[in-house]
User: Fold Transposase from Salinicoccus jeotgali.
Amino acid sequence: MSKKIYSNVEMKQLEANPNVVKVSERSITYHPFFKKVAIQEYQTGKFPSQIFEEHGFNLNIIGKDRPKRCLKRWRDTFEKYGELGLEGERRGKGGTGRPSSKELSAEEKLKKAEARIKYLEAENEFLKKLDELERQAMKKK
Assistant:
């Protein structure tokens, strides 16, 4: 996350850009289409700052090093997960994480399900013990 905090005026300017999905005080969410176009343009030899300026971004507002950092992150994601990795937002509390690059086998799915069952059973036991301790504490009062 950036150390820069955007003012309300800067946020409104950024939100007016069609390549921006949303803006908060500290972050910019870029449109997936823009991410793909930026990667393609970078591969043809354009510089990150040039790409951002040509798509309507003011480098004085977003910061001179942001284009380079964004493109690095997007290229890494693209190489690892393809175009699906660039779709949607995966940061923050609502993020679902990066899409899995491989399909799990039936054996792996079974192991994962068994581990989850074991975890949930342990959680239930803990809650039963906690409930019993609370009942005992209420009796003492």
